[in-house]
């Protein structure tokens, strides 16, 4: 929170001190970058959409392994399965809506002339300067509220709940690892950091050898790093799955 606040204060100070000509120059520089970002996000969004649809279409197969359990266990698994299914459907609907809006904005931005693109980005910078003070005020209020209300006991509870949710998402990704490989491969290519790729490899989500060869095909060759076989621990962080 404090780092975000300092960054926004610095951004506000820098943008406020600029003249109109300087903002116009920055807008000219940002136009091709925005085009690249929109294209990349659209491609990544489409891959996520395909992955979510594939996971949803095969989701019912995950209940077959619990048919021979006792009634109470089977009922619990069915309830959790329906809950996860509804969450996945809601996630897909929201993603499709956001992807539709993104594609609309991309199409509208690409249809503009070069001059209109620069003017649009320049107006967005001016609007950002006007809205930053309000956002900073809200951020300060949220930070103060968290400092006042979130004591150590509440923090530990929130941390455990958050860890459980993250563990559940990771387990779901591992169950459908082959489906999400195109998304993860593109993320590794975009981030282009060995630490990020190795972190995904240690979780068992990507093959470090394939990711390194994928990066070499899309970037300049770097020094090769020896990757050890990912080690998986037996910790169960998902509180619901541990019931």
Concise synopsis of the structure shown:
About 80% of the residues lie in helices and about 0% in strands. With about 240 residues, it is mainly α.
Describe the 3D structure.
By secondary structure, this protein is mainly α. It has two domains: 1-149, no CATH class; 152-243, no CATH class. The chain has eight helices and no strands. It has helices at 2-16, 20-57, 71-111, 114-149, 152-175, 177-191, 194-202, 208-218. α2 (20-57) runs antiparallel to α3 and α2 packs antiparallel against α6 (177-191). The radius of gyration is 23 Å and the shape is globular. The chain starts with a helix and ends in a 25-residue tail after the last helix. The relative contact order is 0.10.
Helices and strands, with pairings:
Blueprint: H1 2-16, H2 20-57, H3 71-111, H4 114-149, H5 152-175, H6 177-191, H7 194-202, H8 208-218
Helix pairs in contact: 1-4, 2-3, 2-4, 2-6
């Amino acid at each position: 929170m404090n780092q975000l606040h300092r960054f926004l204060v610095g951004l506000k100070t820098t943008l406020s001190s600029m003249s109109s000509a300087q903002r116009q120059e920055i807008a000219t520089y940002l136009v091709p970058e925005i085009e690249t970002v929109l294209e990349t996000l659209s491609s990544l969004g489409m891959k996520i959409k395909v992955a979510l649809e594939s996971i949803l279409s095969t989701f019912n197969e995950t209940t077959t392994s619990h048919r021979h359990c006792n009634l109470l266990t089977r009922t619990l698994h069915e309830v959790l399965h329906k809950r996860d299914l509804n969450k996945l459907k809601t996630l897909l609907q929201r993603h499709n809506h956001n992807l539709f809006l993104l594609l609309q904005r991309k199409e509208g931005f690409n249809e503009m002339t070069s001059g209109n693109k620069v003017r649009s980005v320049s107006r967005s910078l001016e609007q950002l300067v006007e809205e930053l003070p309000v956002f900073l005020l809200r951020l300060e209020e949220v930070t103060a509220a968290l400092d006042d209300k979130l004591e150590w006991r509440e923090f530990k509870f929130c941390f455990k709940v958050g860890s459980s949710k993250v563990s559940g998402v990771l387990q779901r990704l591992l169950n459908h690892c082959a489906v999400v490989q195109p998304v993860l491969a593109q993320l590794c290519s975009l981030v282009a950091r060995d630490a990020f790729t190795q972190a995904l490899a240690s979780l068992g989500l990507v093959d470090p050898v394939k990711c390194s060869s994928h990066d070499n095909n899309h970037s300049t060759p770097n020094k090769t790093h020896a990757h050890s076989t990912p080690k998986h621990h037996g910790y169960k962080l998902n509180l619901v799955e541990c019931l």
